[in-house]
Amino acid sequence: AEIHDQKLRRGQGGELHQIAENDTPVLTTAQGGPVADDQNTLRVGARGPALIEDFHFREKIFHFDHERIPERVVHARGYGAHGFFETYESLAAYTRADLFQRPGEKTPAFVRFSTVAGNKGSADLARDVRGFAVKLYTQEGNWDLVGNNIPVFFIQDAIKFPDVIHAAKQEPDRAFPQAQTAHDNFWDFISLTPESMHMVMWVMSDRAIPRSFRFMEGFGVHTFRLINAKDESTFVKFHWKPKLGLQSVAWNEAVKINGADPDFHRRDLWQSIKSGNFPEWELSVQLFDQEFADRFDFDVLDPTKIIPEEILPVKAIGRLVLDRMPDNFFAETEQVAFMTQNVPPGIDFSNDPLLQGRNFSYLDTQLKRLGSTNFTHLPINAPKCPFAHFQQDGHMAMRNPVGRTNYQPNSHGEGPRESPLRGYRHFPAEEQGQKVRLRAESFADHYSQARQFYISQTPPEQRHIAMALTFELSKVETPVIRERMVAHLLNIDETLATTVAEKLGLQTMPKPADAAVPTRQDLPPSPALSIIER
Ligand code: HEM
Predict the structure, then answer these.
(1) N or C: which end of the chain has fewer CB within 10 A?
(2) For residue 5, what pLDDT is reported?
(3) In whole angstroms, what is the distance from residue 27 CA to residue 20 CA?
(4) pLDDT of residue 122 exceeding 90
């Protein structure tokens, strides 16, 4: 009955098309009305004025006018792929997360790689941090591990995030640079933010110009918790290790590639996956307890610090394979919404102040970018496990509760109920303290790990760091910013500092920046502090 009068035909995907005279699908309006002429607007006479009555023209232009959505406020330029995660062995001793219970278990995944600072149309080979955001569609809801290819971050507290990003992105008056770290605002902020020194060393290293996404590591950065069925907590750091190993390009190569093919990283991922050459990463963990954490001079809650792998080796717990490109870039890669707060039962947060802030920011930003509280109705964001809740209505609601009952408890015996046993239980960490705006002294050493990173590099890699710093700072117009940076470098490595200072033509060597770990007495008086002392 559907296929009547030869006007309808099934397409390749089983969908019905209206059929035109020449046997191809009929072009329709979004309302399904068949279109006779898509080349000429309706007008009075062949040379006359257009008529507002032309509903097809108006609908077509209306839709086109609204094609753009806001680009991500950070990580605007990205590229994604589908795949799966396979668990190696049961981690039941550490976590009750369903995806880690059974060896060989496969969990569907979507990954989006990105650059942080550049706009959506910027070039792939910019010197920048790369995002490594993984969405795992587990049987207990989506788990988003929203990481980067560098294991530490610029700042220790989320309240500084708008500042570091404003400083890193294009300057507000001139609207450039669109994708480079090399400018006054960025280096001004960095030179006034000693906690950024460790990350800056990574960003000046070859890590910040990867050969392709397939040769990058990924890091969850923060300390998270794994929680087992007995509600016991183990701290965890997550690492993605590429099966192909780690490879970068040199700066002069990056500059040429950007000029010749600004889509170089996109093209690489597309071509390798389309030709059946599926990139793979191992998920590795560093597991530790509070007693182990207490042995360090630094704080495991501080996102500017790593736990050296020589001290705590990583353990591989599964592999991620990317084997399918999206059918549509916008629908999947652009509309995917990663959120650090998406964790399944068995994975929990630490008190890392950056992570705590992120847990607010990602949900908040999706409303702005995707335009509706119903962004989870988009196929790329919807869980792939059964789900049931009483959320309803809002813009573009695709799913609403069925039937009379849209609340609980209810006496109709309808709809979902909570499950204290299966549901998410937050780890009952004991917390106490005064309400203050203070940073712990255990967050105060900003140079030791920057130095460790620098000396862990081979001589050619160290030369690249010196060259990158020289190039970057030579673009900075304000002399005092250059000097401040050299003053920080003196606390990291003296040879590095003098090499950069000489190449920049600094007349006098600045004094090393104040590296003293402040004690409470050294902190500037603040209302919060005086409350404590009272
Ligand atoms: C986006 C990583 C810190 C706010 C992203 C993305 C990644 C990422 C990978 C891109 C997600 C995608 O591909 O769609 C990180 C890491 C951080 C960090 C590793 C620190 C360790 C922060 C902080 C905030 C923040 C502190 C705010 C307090 C955002 C926002 C987006 C974003 C608003 C845009 C999300 C979207 O529009 O979909 N971040 N980020 N991030 N991040 Fe972060």
Answers:
(1) N
(2) 56
(3) 8
(4) yes
Sign of CA dihedral 187, 189, 192, 197: negative
Distance CA 246, CA 234 (A): 29
Neighbours of 182 (CB within 10 A): 16
CA nearest to 151, candidates 283, 22, 239: 239
Look at ligand 1, atom 25, and give the residue with the nearest C-alpha: 358
Other C-beta atoms lying within 10 Å of the C-beta of residue 457: 16
Residue of 82, 142, 148, 185 with catalytic role: 148
For 340, phi then psi, to 5°, come to: -60, -25
CA distance 230 to 233: 9
Asked whether residue 161 is marked as a ligand-binding residue, the answer is yes
| Cα separation, 56 vs 30, whole angstroms | 9
Question: Residue for token digits 């760091």?
Answer: 465
Ligand 1 interacting residues, C-beta cut-off 6 A:
72-75, 78, 112, 114, 131, 133, 146-148, 153, 158, 161, 221, 303, 336-338, 354, 357-358, 361-362, 365, 369
Percent of the chain's residues with pLDDT above 90: 90
Per-residue pLDDT, 426: 97
Question: Over the stretch 390-425, which tens digit does the pLDDT of each residue have?
Answer: 999 999 999 998 899 999 999 998 899 999 999 999
Active site (annotated) includes residue 75: yes
Is there a contact between 288 and 234 (Cβ–Cβ < 8 Å)?
A: yes
State the CB neighbour count (10 A cutoff) for residue 403.
Answer: 8
3-state class of 55 per DSSP? helix
Q: Between β-strands 280-288 and 315-324, what pairing exists: parallel, antiparallel or unpaired?
A: antiparallel
Q: Is the pLDDT of residue 527 over 70?
A: no
Residue 349 CA to residue 424 CA, distance in Å, equals 12
**Which of 134, 237, 338, 356 should be mutated for ligand 1, with most atoms under 8 A from CB?**
338
Reply yes or no on whether the pLDDT at 497 is more than 50: yes
Q: Write down the pTM of the prediction.
A: 0.94
pLDDT in the model for residue 22: 77
> What's the Cα-to-Cα distance from 17 to each of 9, 55, 320, 375, 478, rounded to whole Å?
5, 21, 38, 29, 64
286-309 average pLDDT score: 97
Give CA–CA dist 421/524, Å, rounded: 48
The residue among 368, 341, 342 whose CA lies nearest residue 355 is 341
The letter for the amino acid at 134 is V
What is the per-residue pLDDT across 460-472, written as a single tens digit (0 to 9) for each? Answer: 999 999 999 999 9
Q: What is the pLDDT of residue 80?
A: 98
CA of residue 355 to ligand 1 center, whole Å: 10
